[in-house]
Amino acid sequence: MAGTFELYQDKAGKHRFRLKAGNGEIIAVGEAYNSKAACEKGIQSVKNNAPTAPIKEVSSPALHRA
What we know:
By secondary structure, this protein is of the alpha+beta class. The chain has one domain (4-64): 2-Layer Sandwich (Double Stranded RNA Binding Domain), CATH 3.30.160. 21% of the residues lie in helices and 24% in strands. A 3-stranded antiparallel beta sheet has the order 1-2-3, covered by helices on one side. A hairpin with a 5-residue loop joins strand 1 (4-9) and strand 2 (15-20). The longest helix is centred in the middle third of the chain and has 14 residues, at 36-49. The chain is globular, with a radius of gyration of 13 Å.
């Protein structure tokens, strides 16, 4: 079974998404969006931009935040 995007509202009323693998494991989560439409655009962005994204190993995620 292919992965599934789940779109939901968090306790603060923000829209979020998560990507679940075929086995139900959460493998990615999105940020908090102010609108459902913006969240849907975030999902579409992942679909459009990630298929060929390279893997980049970094020493510590906290040191490389933008």
